[in-house]
Amino acid sequence: KVFFAIMPVWFVPVGITIATLAAIIASQAMITGSFTLVSEAIKLNLWPKMKINYPTEEKGQLYIPGINLLLCIGCVAVVLFFGGESKNMEAAYGLSITITMIMTSCLLIYYMMLKRVRKLWITLYLIVYLTIEFSFLFANMDKFPHGGYVSIVIGGLLFGVNYIWYQSRRIRNRYVEFVKLEEYLPQLQELSNDTSIPK
Fold this sequence. Notes:
Structural class: mainly alpha
Strand content: under 5%
Shape: extended
Helix content: over 70%
Number of helices: 7
Distance between the termini: 68 Å
Radius of gyration: 24 Å
C-alpha cells in the first residue's frame, strides 16, 4: 500500500524492476564480501576451517559452500522471524549499516595509527566521521526494539564464534611443541629419495 502511495501507478512495474535489480546487486555484493571476509578470517585463525573452492584461475575468485548455505539459512530465518514485515527488517538493516560504518572508521583509525599518520589527521578524521556516524547511530536507536536488536544478536553470534575459535587455538597452542625443521632434514631427504615409497 505504501509502495503505491509513493509512486504513480504507471511507474510501479518500472519501480519493481529497479528494486529487484538493486536487491540482486546488493545480494551479490554481500555474498562476495562474506566469502572474502571468511577466507581472511580462516587465514588469521579467527574462524573454523571450511572447504574453499577456487572456480577459476583468476586471483581472488573463491566460493565457500558452507557460508553460502549459512547465508541461505540466515536469510530464510530472518524473513520468517519478521513475518515478512518489511518495516522491521528495515530497522535491523538500518542499525547494522550504521554499526558497520562505525566499525570501519575504528579499523581505519587503527590502521592510520599503525602507519604513524600524524595525530592531527587522525583527530580530524575522528571528529568529522565519528560525529556523523554516531549521530546516525543515535537517530537509529529508536529502531532497536522494532527489529534492530536482531542485527546485534547476529553480530554477537559471529563475534562469539571468532572469539571462541581464537581463544581455543591459543589454548591448543600451549600444548603443542614446535621443533626446528633443521633437525629433521636428513630424515625428510632420505624419505624424499626413497623410490620404493610412492610419493
